[in-house]
């Protein structure tokens, strides 16, 4: 029998996780201490399911999906026998630590996973004995529409915990990204933060308006980034891949970074490693076919978006 999944906290992200887990056919137990929130959650779940159905994204019966989610006011009841305890509490380490201490006592085997957006695992665990099974599992928001989930180990996370967690998240339709070690903001918010920092600088310097900066992302970069990341985008922009792209563009990017006080040049060794990893994914002899694929994907989006 497939183990249930626990969600600790019934706010917006907790409801979204419960929905994703239930859509995958899993029994879900949601711990929520507030009686008012426990009363509101079923209606919110059904409203989100109705939106999915209206957009042709619900393959299951709405009542059946909603019926997989059980609400409780007790952490122990939510966590007992669960494969993962997905914490969705406010972004304060002390709140998360107290919640995990209770969850850890309720089940000695459940993976303890925090939805933290920036707090690293070691800041949550301190010296607690359950640090060996705690990770950050940071989702896109909402996870039932943005499938990427970052899995971040702490310095005391036991070997195999990330693998166990990844298997569960893959089974419920999410796309795990495994970080090798903890770092504030993880990958998602560091990439997002880099774009936001430059956007604010461009606004501050009077280069462009808020709406025009958003337009460059919305109508330009965003169309490509909706199906490709920055490495693949650059790899396909210049014949010869990342090495050729870096030879052409690295000096300009280095100057732009230095202008903002961030002098992180792309060293030959770094470019060579990025190029090597891309060639494992896409041999150069398949480069033209992949460029055609990119263009066709952009055509599909143009047809949809205008």
The gist of it:
This protein is an alpha/beta fold.
Describe the structure.
The chain is of the alpha/beta class. It folds into two domains: 5-178, Rossmann fold (3-Layer(aba) Sandwich), CATH 3.40.50.720; 189-305, N-(1-d-carboxylethyl)-l-norvaline Dehydrogenase, domain 2. It contains 13 helices and eight strands. It has helices at 12-23, 35-54, 62-67, 75-79, 93-106, 121-125, 161-171, 188-204, 210-225, 230-237, 242-259, 268-281, 287-305, and strands at residues 5-8, 28-31, 69-72, 84-87, 111-114, 134-139, 148-153, 175-178. The chain has an eight-stranded mixed sheet. Helix 1 links the parallel strand 1 (5-8) and strand 2. The radius of gyration is 22 Å and the shape is globular. The model has no long low-confidence stretch (mean pLDDT 96).
> How many strands?
8
The domain tally reads 2
Tell me the fraction of residues in β-strands, as a range: 5-15%
**N-to-C span:** 47 Å
Mean pLDDT: 96
Rg (C-alpha, Å): 22 Å
Short descriptors:
306 residues, alpha/beta, Rossmann fold, N-(1-d-carboxylethyl)-l-norvaline Dehydrogenase, domain 2, 8-stranded mixed β-sheet, oxidoreductase activity, acting on the CH-OH group of donors, NAD or NADP as acceptor
Write the layout of secondary structure elements.
Elements: E1 5-8, H1 12-23, E2 28-31, H2 35-54, H3 62-67, E3 69-72, H4 75-79, E4 84-87, H5 93-106, E5 111-114, H6 121-125, E6 134-139, E7 148-153, H7 161-171, E8 175-178, H8 188-204, H9 210-225, H10 230-237, H11 242-259, H12 268-281, H13 287-305
Parallel strand pairs: 1-2, 1-4, 2-3, 4-5, 5-6, 7-8
Antiparallel strand pairs: 6-7
Helix pairs in contact: 1-2, 10-11
Domain 3-hydroxyacyl-CoA dehydrogenase C-terminal: 185-278
Domain 3-hydroxyacyl-CoA dehydrogenase NAD binding: 5-181
Pathway: Lipid metabolism; butanoate metabolism
């Amino acid at each position: 029998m497939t183990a249930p999944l626990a969600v600790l906290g019934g706010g917006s992200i907790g409801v979204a996780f419960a929905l994703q887990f239930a859509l995958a056919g899993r029994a879900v137990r949601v711990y929520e201490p507030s009686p008012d929130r426990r009363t509101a959650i079923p209606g919110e779940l059904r409203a989100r399911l109705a939106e999915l159905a209206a957009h042709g994204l619900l393959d299951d019966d709405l009542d059946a999906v909603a019926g997989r989610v059980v609400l409780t006011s007790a952490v122990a009841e939510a966590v007992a026998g669960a494969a993962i305890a997905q914490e969705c509490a406010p972004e304060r380490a002390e709140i998360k630590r107290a919640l995990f201490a209770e969850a850890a006592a309720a089940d000695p085997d459940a993976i303890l996973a925090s939805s933290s957006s920036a707090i690293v695992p070691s800041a949550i665990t301190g010296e607690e004995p359950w640090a060996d099974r705690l990770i950050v599992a940071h989702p896109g928001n909402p996870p039932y529409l943005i499938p990427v989930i970052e899995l971040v180990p702490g310095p005391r996370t036991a070997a195999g915990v990330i693998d166990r967690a990844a298997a569960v998240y893959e089974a419920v339709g999410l796309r795990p990204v495994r970080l090798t070690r903890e770092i504030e903001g993880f990958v998602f918010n560091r990439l997002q933060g880099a774009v936001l920092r430059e956007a604010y600088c461009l606004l501050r310097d009077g280069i462009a308006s808020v709406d025009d900066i958003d337009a460059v992302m919305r109508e330009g970069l965003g169309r490509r980034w909706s199906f490709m990341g920055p490495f693949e985008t650059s790899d396909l922009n210049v014949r010869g891949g990342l090495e050729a792209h870096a030879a052409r563009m690295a000096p300009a990017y280095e100057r732009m970074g230095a202008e903002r006080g961030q002098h992180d040049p792309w060293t030959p060794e770094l470019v060579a490693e990025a190029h090597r990893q891309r060639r494992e994914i896409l041999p150069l002899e398949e480069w033209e076919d992949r460029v055609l694929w990119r263009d066709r994907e952009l055509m599909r989006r143009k047809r949809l978006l205008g």
